[in-house]
Structures are given as C-alpha cells and as structure tokens.
Amino acid sequence: MGPGPGPGGPGARFKEAPEVKNRKETVRRLWQYLKHERLRLIVAVVLIIGTSALGLVGPLLMGRAIDDYIIPGDMNGLARLMLIMLAVYLGNSLLMWLQALIMSQVAQRTVHLLRTDIFAKLQRLPLRFFDTRPHGDTMSRVTNDVETISQILTEGASQIVSSVLTGVGVIVLMLILEPTLAVISIGSLVILSLVVNRYIGPRTRVGFREQQKHLGTLNGLIEETISGQRTVMAYNQENDRIEQFLEQNETLRQHSVRAQTFAGVVGPIMNFVNNFSIAMVAGAGGWLVVDGRTTVGVVATFLSYTRQLSQPVNQISQMYNQLQSALAGAERIFEILDEPDEIDAASHEIGHQAITRGEVEFRDVSFSYDGVTPILKHVSLHAEPGSVTALVGPTGAGKTTIINLITRFYEIDSGHILIDGTDLKDINKVELRRQLGIVLQDGFLFAGTVMENIRYGRLDASDEDVIEAAKMAQADDFISHLPDGYDTELTERGGNVSQGQRQLITIARALLANPRILILDEATSNVDTRTERYIQEGMTRLMQGRTSFVIAHRLSTIRGADQILVINQGEVIERGTHTELLEQGGFYARLSGSQSGGGDEEILRAEEEEELRAMARAQAQQ
Amino acid sequence: MHETRRLASFLRKYKLLVILAPLMMIGEVAIDLMQPRLTQHIIDVGIANNDLSTVLQTGALMVGLSIVGVVFGVLCGVFAVRAGLGFAADLRAALFRKVQSLSFANLDKLETGSLITRLTNDVTQLSDAVQMMLRIMVRAPLLLIGSIIMAVFTAPKLSLLFVVLIPVLLLIVGLVMSKAFPRFIKVQAKLDHINRIMQENLAGVRVVKAFARHRYEVDRFGRGNDDLRDTTLSAVYLMVLIAPVLMLTVNFGFVAALWFGGNMVNDGEIEVGALVAFSNYLMQSMFGLMMASMVLMRFTRAEASAQRVNEVLDSAPVIVASTTASVPAAPIGKVQFDHVSFSYSSESEPVLRDISFTVEPGTSLAILGSTGSGKSSIVSLIPRFYDVTNGRVLVDDMDVREWDETRLRDHVSIALQESVLFSGTVRDNIRFGRPDATDAEVERAARMAQAEEFISGLEDGYDSLVGQRGVNLSGGQRQRLAIARAIVRGAPILILDDSTSAVDVATERRIRNALAELNMTVILVAQRISAVVNATKIIVLENGRIVAEGNHEDLMTNSPAYQEIYRSQIESGVANGAA
Questions:
Q1: CB distance A591–B80 less than 8 Å?
Q2: Is the minimum CB–CB distance between B454 and chain A shorter than 8 Å?
Q3: Which of A148-162, A262-276, A552-566, B28-42 shows the highest mean pLDDT?
Q4: pLDDT digits 0-9 by tens, A240-274
Q5: Is B194 near chain A, with CB under 8 Å?
Q6: Nearest to B209 among A307, A433, A591 (CB)
Q7: Would you list the DSSP string of A149-191?
Q8: Segments forming the whole domain that contains residue B523
Q9: pLDDT at residue A604 is higher than 80
C-alpha cells in the first residue's frame, strides 16, 4: 500500500473537524503532556491575569484624567497621572510579551514531545498497522493534527483565558462604576451578540458542512481526472470530464455562496452590535450626566470598556471552534499512541540468545491475517544452516506470509518457529533482525546518497566497506556511471535509478549487513537482461554461506536450491530437490509444465483472489 | 503582487460586484467614523449645555446610523462573497479546461501531484484573497485615512501626533517582519525535513524493521525535531514582539494625546468631547494600520499561489492540432514508422533513433527490449501523444500530424502501462473505452480480457464500485479491466503497452489468443518473451534503435540479441505462473 489518499478519498483532508468522542479523556491526556510545562503554565496564567488587569486600568485612569484633572484644569495632577498611565501601559506590554514568549515555549516543547512520542511509537508498531492503514491518514495525524494543537497552545489558550478575564473584569468594573450604564452596555452588547451567534452559528455550521462535502467531491473528481489524465486523453474523454467537472463546480459554487454568505455577514453584524451599544452608552450616558448622576469621565471610560467587551465576545466563539478541532486532532493522535506495540521478547527479559548458525525450523505453524481465513495451515519446515530453500507456488499461496513470519513482522496463531533451536518468541527482535537480511523486489531507497543507502545495512561501515559490498553485489559498475558516483542523491522513489538498479543497491545493503539468514524475493519482471544477470550473480554471492529463503521465479535458482517447498493453499504440499519433485510428477511438475502449455492457472487465480480477499477483510476490520 | 494582478481578468465578469462591494464598505466605514463625532456632540453640546433633547436626539441618530451601517456592511459581505466564489469557480474551470487541452509533454513537466494542489488549495487561497481584497483591503486603509481626516477635523493641532506615530509603527512592523520572514522560510524547510523522514518510515517500514534500525531512525528524527523546535522558537520569539510593542506605541500615543489635549482643553482651545473623540480616532486608525499589515502578510501567500496557477494557465499545448484535420477514406489499420527519431525535450538525448517499420492491417507486432530502450516511446507516437523530432509516423498511410486528433485517437486504442480506474462501476470503467457500448459488448470485452471470471466473483459483479471508494483490485485485475476497456473501443488498431506485466503467463496467453480472433492490428509491448513468440513480427529495441526484426523463427536463427533474451528467460525458466 503506497502513501497518498486512502479509502477516505482525497476529500478527507478537507473534512471538518469531527466531534470529539471522549472530551474528558482527551483533555486529561493532553494534560499529561502539558504537565511537564506546569511551571511555565502557572507563570503564564499569572502574567495573563496581570495584563488583563492592567488593560482594564487604562480606561479607568482616562476617566479620572478627564473628571479630576482636565475639567478642573489641574495640569500638575494630570502630569502625575500621565506618568502612572505610562507605567501601566509599559507594564501591560511587558507582561504581554513575557506571556507570549512563555506560551510559545510551552507550545513548541509540548508539540516536540508529542512528535517524539508519535515517531517512537511508529517504530514500535507492528507491520499490521502499516499494512492496514493508509499512509496518508497517518501522515495527516502527524502533521496537520499536531499543527492544530501547536496553534491552539501558542495563541488560542492564552486568548481564551485573557478574553474571559477581560470580559469578567470589564463587567465587574462597569457595575461598580455606574450600574445603570453597565446594564445598558452589557445588555445591548452581550445579549445582541448571543442572539446573533445563536441565529447565525448553526446555519453557518450546516452550510460549511455542505460546502466541505461538495468540495471533497469536486476535489476527488479533479484528483482522479488528473491522475488518469493520460488515459482520459487516450480515450478522447476530455469533454465528458469537463462536463462532469462543470456540473460539480457549479454545485459547489452554489453551496459555498450559501455557507459563506452567512459567515461573511457575521463581521458587519458584530460591527453593528458594537456601534449600537456605543450609541446606547453615549445616549444614555449623556442623559445620566445631564441628570447629574454621573460624570463625563465615566462615560468616556464606558465607551472604552464597551469596545473592550465586544472583542472577547467575538473571540470566544471563534476560539471554541479552534479548540474543538485541536481536541479532535489530539484524539486522533492518541489513537495512534494507543495502538498495541509489536510484541518483543525483550519485554520477557529473556531474549539474549545470539543467532550463530542460522538454522530455521517451523513446527506446525498456522496463521491468518484476520483471524478468520487461515493463510498458513500446519506448516512445518526445516532449513539447515547455510542451505538454500526455494519457496514455490502460485501467488497468494502463502509464500510472502512465511517470510512475514520468519522476520516476525506478524505473530503466529499456533505452532512454533525456532531459530538455532530457540523459539522465535524468546529471541530479541533487534538481534533477530540483525541476523536477517531481506531483499525485496521493490527495493526501497531513502532520500540520501547511494553511499548512505548501502550503509544502512551496517551503520559503522567505512566507505571502503560500502564500495566493497557494492562491487560484490555487481552494483559498483552502474554506480560509478551515475553523475556523482556514490554521492549521487537518490529520491525517495528512486526516480533516477531503474528498478533493477534499486534492487542491486538493496543487495549491496544486505551484503554489508552480513546476516546469518537471508530472505530474497526474486521476481524481476521489469528488469532488462543485463541488469537481471547482475542481480542473479549478486544474489548468488549473497546466498553463499547463509541460510537463504528465496521466493523463486527462475528455474536456475530453484534447480540450485537444497530444498524446494511447494506451497499451495497455505500448505506445504511437496518438498524435495528439483529432480526429486519432477520424478514425483505432482503439482510442481505440472507447475513447471504450465510454462509451455496447459496447467493449473485456474488454481493460481483462485488462490490469488483468496489471499487478497483475506487482506481486504483484515483491513475492513481495522 | 504582479502574479495576482494577472488573474484580475477572472473578475471582469463580476465587475458590478467588484465595484459595489468596496462602495458598500465605504458606506460602512463612513458611518463607523461618524460615531465618535456624534459622541463628541453629545458631550460638548448636549451635556455642556445640560440639553437633554440634544443628547437623546444625537443618541437616536447614532442608533439609526448604526442600522444603516449594518445594511451597507451586510451588502458588502454578500457582494464580496459572490465575487470571490464566482472568481474561484471560473478560475478552477479555466484550469481544468487547460489541463484537458494539454499534451503529454506538458503533463510530464507539471507533475500530477502538483497540478492537483494547484486546482484545489491554490484556488481556495486565491478565492479567500479576493474576498479579503474586496473587504478588509478596502476597510483597513479607509479606516486609517478616514480616522486621520476626522482627527484633523476634530483637533487639528493634536493631529501632529500622527506624524510621529505612523512612521514609528511602520518602522517597527517592517523591521520585525523583515527579520522574521527568512526565519519562517527556514522553519518550513525543517518541517519538510521531518515530514520526509516520517514519510520514508511509513513507506519503507519493512526495511527499517528488517534492519532493526528503529534507534537510528528515532535519533535521526529526534535531531530534525530538535532543529524544528529551535528554529520555530527563534522565529516566534520575534513575532511575539510585534503585538506588545505596537500596543505600547499606540498607548503612549494615547497618553500623549491626553496630555497635550488636556492642556489644550485647559487653555480653552478644544472641548473635552473633542478630546474623547480624538483619542477614539487615534485608536481606530492604529487598528486600521495593524489590520492592513496583517492582510499584507496573507497576500504574500496568495502571490505564491497565483504564480503556480499562472504557470498552468500559461502552458501552451506542445502538440498543435493539425490545420487540415483530415481523415483517410477507408480505415484499414496500418501503421508505418519512417525514419523516426524522437526525444522528450530539445535538451535531452534522443530516445528513439532512425526507427522504420511497417505493420500491415490485421497483423500483430511485438516490441521487445529492456527498460528504457524506447518501447513505450514508440507506441506513444502512434496516437500522437508526442510529436516526432524527425521522420514521420503514418497511420493508414497518412501522417499523424495531418489527422484530426480526435479521430486519430478513436482509431487507435491503447491500454497504457498504468492501468487507471475511475470512480464508478466495473461496467462504467470498461465502457470508458466507448460510452455507447452495450452491456453485451462490455461483457464480451471483459471475457476476451479474461476479466469476466473475477468480475463475476465480485459481490455486485459488473456493478461493483471500483476506484477511490470502491473495492481493491489487484494489479493484474486492474490491468485486465484496462485491456477490456481498450478492446471495447472497437478501434482498428489496438496497442497494449506492457499491460499484462502483472497477469500470469497462462492468462496472458489466453488474452493473446482472444485478441487473435479479432480482425485488428495489434501492437504489444512486452518484457516476457513468452508474450511475443506468436506475433507476426517482432522488433527488438536496444538504446532506441531496432537491433533485430522478424518473426520468432527468423530471430532465433539470426539475432544474437534475441537469442540472449530467450536464453535468459526460457532456459532459466519462469517457474511461477504469476510475476
């Protein structure tokens, strides 16, 4: 399964944040991460209280300036008050800055810890996880979800706290200063805002959900058409595709207009609420002053406070959405962290058994991917140290599964696998895999130089060792013809080297690792003749002196094997050398014969589809 | 802003909305700006003279105006949203049409993944930018300039404060931004780095596990992660300076206004209400300034999107449609290469050199050769996916460059190397080859492509959904559907470009036998010698040249190259049915 959009479709990344399933639990676990930053958080909260308080003092002092000094004309007093105001504002900015500094540290450190944990977790997850989950989905959790959490921590959290504090502070101060005016200001502002949010909020949400759905469909169409663009052209289907597109494009436009119009008028309406409240305060305030019940300074203070109050009311509803998607993101991350680890002998405190000879034995091993469809049934086999075992049989018969079990990528359901007489379960995985070399047909290369890619087999290998291994693998020839030789940068997909050459690099990598047990997947259908010969030679050298399991396709390999295991429908149905098996005249003989005519292709396809179905079921259960 | 401006032509259709939206915004801002003046009136005229009716009348006027204001504001919103979304829909459609008109060579250059992002994310970015331009980009400067003008009217002498404040603010914002910007670019690079490690570990999980390299990978990721944290913090440390410093400047300006204004009130130069109004305008103008600087930041992102979108709009199809657009009198299905040379671009090495051969109607040609020898290039010249560099490709004795392009592609049916399935049913996917094919024709094609058996094994048979949301099909099954699609086309010339690589040998043979019953010209590209032995003619390619030509028997006697391939494949034997 490759990276990229999985079954969720390309629309998945445009999906709105899903409901948080277990808010309490998610918050609790997020707190486990924030706990490390407890001290910083406490300081930040204190600083937020400080800035919010100082922010409230400003307008209060302004009112005093007007009432006590400007109107009476006490310029000395005004000068003193101005100095106090300067100090207050200076303090306000200073605390605000410190708070932002600390919170960005909290955010970055927490996110850093989360990323570290996720990555370490990915290293511990069993292969089943990667085989059954679209990589795109996992990537999105690691990138987008982590990013949302980072954002809410950097700005959102402190904004919510300061909004609430400012809102409460303003209301309290207003009530103390002049209760009548306070009721008018709070009443008109808060009540109108709530009404607006109540009315527009749900409509916007519904509208946006619709819009996202149609955007997803349209993006899906775009993605699919462009990915298959060459086919579209080859079949003259351009106009048909354009028609489909235009129809979807128009549907999306209509839904977007509906959704975004609702969202787009929130701004002006809130502006109105603000203006309306100020008008009310100015009018009513003026009345009260004329009545002699309050002063001009208090009205000026109230005008400022009303403005200050409108901000938190607006922000809190916005922040709520952001908080919601951050929690949903956190929940998705915790889902990965909660996946069960790969079982490792190290946890049993045994596994320090070294693998020295490389003897492999299966005793009555059964296995199924989904717990329903058995893929291997009572398989027993024995490979002498240094021997070559060829695994032969139709696609889907269970050859790859045997390999997945030797490497302990998957755990067996029953039976025993023994290496050098020790149960696989009692061998430390690191030790096991240090002694295992694997060469798969789609040789995976990392972004990096050729040198680095080969050295992956043994990290402390010198440049000379690497080149030596490349020579043995017959890879030196083409590597030295690359533009920068061993320092040529390879792309992740290995675009600048052919598939066969990639396999040569992976053979060199396995040679460098010098394992006791080797696993080779031979199929080379897309490789040219010369490279194929190189691969053959490289593999032959690689197998010398090691216990080798080969998923074999070439008759020469099979002929040279010490034993051939013919696997069909999850069972070893025949075993022996090439000549022995031909003499038996059984399935193997027929299989070889099917090259030149007649044969068991019916079985082949039925088998292939059965294994695919089993995999699909395992996926569906995830 | 150059790239963004080029896209303005997409707004022409919405001219009325584009003019009306800012006009409405002017109305809204004007009313916002009147509020402090009216407050001043309440204080200086109403309160000062103890005139309750002036107070109440002015208050009522303010309420009334705010209602007019919301009408303006809402209309502006409605117009801007419509213009922005109309722009997005038209731009997206233009891009989509463009992509449909491009040639293979354009697609090679633009890359699929990046094209998709351009049509999705980039268009959304630009649509947001248009809406912002029509609203905030109008509002912010209006608010700034309007407030200053109103401040000058209210208290001309005090307005000298702006002369000090504005340059200071611009300096601070400019300074921090210019320092922070390069750091944010670095942050992006670090983020890309750890994402790549993550991606590699997902894709290469077997290798990482097989070599037990988890500790190495954790270290590698840890270093990148540390780096990312430190770089991000270094950028964020600068950014968190902006808000407090701006606030400080504005507040100091406010204190200065109170001080100087207070003195002026004392000297009888202005009234108290004017001072309150002035400080209000001061705050509003600063708010406008901050808003403008924030929006400008967003616009730099839109500029990058615009550039990527323009790149698509600017690409011209490499293949120019024939001016004559003729069609031969009777379709016979003959293909001829006449000294053809071809390279994918003028800078690159030719992949085909001096290729000449003829495929007679109703016969078959097999092209054999190693990866990169030019097999796929040959067949992609026949439906004119690319134009030759030298020589001629003739279909039914007419140069493909003279053919009507659509008719040529209806005449040549090709199953490409990548077997693409579209969302829809199995039936839809086969019918993609010929939309008016009957169910019976679809099923016959599926039978010939040896796909019927697995299709009937699917839960819904021919109506099973495949593609993005459908069932998973194996590589071999997808290939067989692609072949069925090519067959149902019913074109005189059928090309299979290595499209049986994932099908087992026996099935492949049966597909070949079925094709032989059709009276078609068949050209097939193959790696396996077993696939080509029965072809009327085989050509062997090496490094873009034909090194051998003839039928199997001829080549076995005459061609060392062919013999070598035969030995390596047949004598070593392909033991397992499926590759």
A1: no
A2: yes
A3: B28-42
A4: 889 999 999 999 999 999 888 887 888 888 888 88
A5: yes
A6: A433
A7: HHHIIIIIHHHHHHHHHHHHHHHHHHHHH-HHHHHHHHIIIII
A8: 335-571
A9: no
* Nearest neighbour of A234 by CB, restricted to B46, B409, B527: B409
- What pLDDT is attached to residue A11? 29
Claim to verify: residue B370 and residue B509 sit in the same structural domain: yes
In a domain, B278, yes or no: no
d(C-alpha A310, C-alpha A272), whole Å: 11
Is B360 found in the same domain as B310?
A: no
Above 60 in pLDDT, residue B229? yes
> Both B387 and B440 in a single domain?
yes
Tell me how crowded residue A488 is: count the other CB atoms within 10 A of its CB. Answer: 16
Nearest by CB: A260 against B81, B229, B505? B81
Give the Cα-Cα-Cα angle B195, A41, A47 (nearest 5 degrees).
120
Q: How many residues does chain B have?
A: 579
- Residue B215 within any structural domain of the chain: no
B343 and B475 housed in the same domain: yes
pLDDT category at B187 given cuts 50, 70, 90 is confident
Higher pLDDT, B355 or A611: B355
- Helix (H) or strand (E) segment spanning residue A417: strand A414-419
User: Which chain A residues are closer than 8 Å to B220 by Cβ?
Assistant: none
The answer to the question of residue B253 being in a domain is no
Q: Position B28: which residue type?
A: E
Q: What is the pLDDT of residue B186?
A: 86
ipTM over 0.85: no
Q: Can you tell me the distance from the alpha carbon of A555 to that of A535, in angstroms, rounded to the nearest whole number?
A: 15
CA-nearest residue to B64 within chain A is A276
Domain ranges of chain A: 22-177+326-341, 179-293
Topology at the third CATH level for domain A22-177+326-341: ABC transporter transmembrane region fold (1.20.1560)
Distance of alpha carbon A101 from alpha carbon A104, whole angstroms: 5
CATH number of the domain bearing residue B308: 1.20.1560.10
Q: What is the mean pLDDT of chain A?
A: 80
Q: Are residues B309 and B456 in the same domain?
A: no
Domain shared by B305 and B445, yes or no: no
Mean pLDDT of B18-43: 91
Q: Do B207 and A438 touch (CB under 8 A)?
A: yes
Q: How many domains does chain B have?
A: 2
